[in-house]
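Crash report, auto-generated. Payload:
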Amino acid sequence: MNASDRRAAVARRLWPLVSLLLLVSLTTLVLAGGSPSLQRVLLTGLVDLVLVVGRYCFVGQSGIISFGHAAFMAAGAYTMALLTIPAPLKGSLVAVPHTVRTGTVSPLIAILLAGLVAALLAAVVSIPLMRLNGLSAGLATVSLLIVVRVVSQNWDQLTNGLGGLYGIPPIADPWAALPWALGAIVLAFAYQSSRFGLRLRSSRDDEVAARSIGVHVKLERGLAFVVSAFVTGVGGALYARSVGAINPDSFFLDITFVVIAMLVVGGTTSLAGAVVGTLALSAISELLRQAEQGSLLVPAQSGVRDVGLAVVVLVVLLLRPQGLTGGRELPFPTVRLRRRSAAPSPPPASTQAPS
Amino acid sequence: MSSVLENLISGITSGSLYALYALGIAVIFGIMRLVNFAHGELIMSGTYAVFLAAGLPVPLQIAVALAAPLVLALGMERVAFRPIRGASPGTLLVTSFALSFLLQSLATLIFGTLPKAANIAPALQGSVGLLGLTVARLDLVTIAVTLALLGGVGAFLSRTRFGAQMRASAEDFTMARLLGVKADRVIAAAFAISGMLAGIAGFLLMAQTGTATPTDGLYPLLFGLVATVVGGLGSLWGAVLGGYLVGLLSTLLQVTLPDSIRPYHDAFVFGAIFFFLVFRPSGLVVPRIARTRV
Amino acid sequence: MRALEVEGLCVSYGPVPALRDVSLHVEQGELVGLLGPNGAGKSTLVNAVCGVVKPSAGTVAIAGAAMAGVSCERIARLGVSLVPEGRHIFGSLTVRDNLRLGAAARRDGGAGTDAAIERVIERFPVLGRKLDGGAGRLSGGEQQQLAIARALVTDPFLLLLDEPSLGLAPLIVDLVFEVLAELRAEGLTVLLVEQHATRTLAAADRSYVLRSGNVVYEGAGDEHGAKEQLMIASLGEDL
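Recovered output after restart:
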């Protein structure tokens, strides 16, 4: 293979990643100059993107639907909160270790630690969890979510219970979230392109066959689970920063539905699906919210938006269950890279007898 | 001793409710291999229906409580589940999840997030002395109604010809169809039974709590699902058994947990479920088909 | 009018073609054999006739009527009964309930069910002794008898059997072929899919041999061509 062939091959392999990075960056560029409410939407969208990409790392690769990932989001968010809330505001949380209670950590380190805490939780839970399949696994993840929720609601000395934590140094600038969104995409891409991702996907399509060629399905799933939890934890930390105050209700049904919806609408089995789904549903969600305000509808803020989102998801599921991207990555632009100066390939061998 | 018996009755009451939830889910799962997340919303529609019918005499309240989930169940079968009948389990699961969310959001839209209170069936409230124990009247009614319902559904399934068609469909749907069993009718019947069970459960729930909220269906769904899996997926009696076991476990924990930990009750219940699933993922009752000799 | 007419049938499972342009027919009252090695497409063909799988091309006509887009339960109610590979009896039901299920497909709306059950019990006495037991507790041979009996309760005019002798003791296989011979004498039309080539060729009026989704032979059983094609089909091209 000559140099230009090699370059083309590398470009082809990296295109799914580059295309998504470009897409997200361009979107941010275009929208970041807009009104404050638009910037808010963009920020929320970027945070959602991290969450959805995180979920994709597990669900898209293993084929097991997890309904309990909000537990990792909570773990990340609470870690972030506890690490960055100014000391005077968290003095009453006696279950928190002394050093954490009396100091704060830079946001960058806090976010990474948040991801690590979530990953650690996932690692511990995955030991029993990865034995399970299908519905049992889904239910087990729900059990995890409920346990985390109950703990966060009741362990006042750690989480301030139902009151939640406030005083997290907020961010309002989408540019602050962009690097994390891009990083999540890079990490997800690296994982899915690695042999770990490949092995896991083989088990998704046919578990028995995968086992027979030596794929250690439980381990691969566990690894995906941990990676997924890390990214989700980071997403949770970003969420905490974007709202400034968190409580146990932020990490339950609503966000679980939103993330699953974005993943499904985009296409569960591709990274592009996660990104496209997030962008599409964020846009639709915002449109619905504006329609809600602009009309004479009386209902509560999130009422129409939720109904609209659910309807959109159902329509997609009924008409195009493989999602907007059809489970594939973004198509490679073949026009640009077709070599024009290549020598013509030899004509196909003739099967006709010479006349 | 008497308090032990009283707690036992309490546990059986919970178990009865959970058995109703579980059976409603298992009936549909058995035939279509579909986990209907929206089953919780069927129950929720029952509670709101009773709320709306609060002024009417009790028999009418019950009729309304049955009618609303029944119509909703048949509607969701026709509109949401029939078009995707052959789809992959993942698609079915997410569709029912989205449907569940849709119905919850609709309820929020229509009724608001705050609980709607109504005083229904005052005749069922209060306690009764029974063999030296103090038992809530509603508990006795719940247990009795559940046993009657379970008996009725059981008799229907095992003694009638259509019931045999349904059981056959639950075991091997394609083979049943090859024998001329009409798929649409069997599935509609399953949803109808599911809706009816949800309606009664909704009525009892409303009588117990006195309020209707959009999220009423969430915990019944979760407990119902858990009971179904604990009992063994694919087995109707397993679902019932699982319901009673989870109910008894929940009450046991409620009674034995020290005060300081009691708020974490749900965490213990679901934690126990988690470990049960890990050690016995196929559930308690392995469906008899798995034991068929070849 | 032929009992069954299949023309140019193509069936694929996703990208994998299972049947390529298959044509065959069964006249009323005939017993036709369908032979071939594993994976030849025999089960696919029978499933397509009964409406379980949808063909991508070609037609299936039963008693002259096209079956395109007809659901499998309607086809069953028209008088087509399939005894699928692997028996598929309902283990969680009693033997009696299994037999009673045949009522749904009867063209008389179930009126003659009890009489039909009496008749099949005469053919398969072992079922008569275990009527109220769970079907899941029957032995393999008994389950196969139940599967056939159940199909007969539906009072079909066209009976399809997919490998009924698979995994059965020779004595039971004898019984099955005996019953098939009786049924044929009574005028029932039968399409028999089998790997048991010799007996099928002997019992059938005509046989087809299927290989890799194509019909490679059609003719009466005692013709030389049948056996040769079968050997080629089973053992490979280069023989």
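Post-recovery validation: The beta strands of chain A are 165-166, 245-246.
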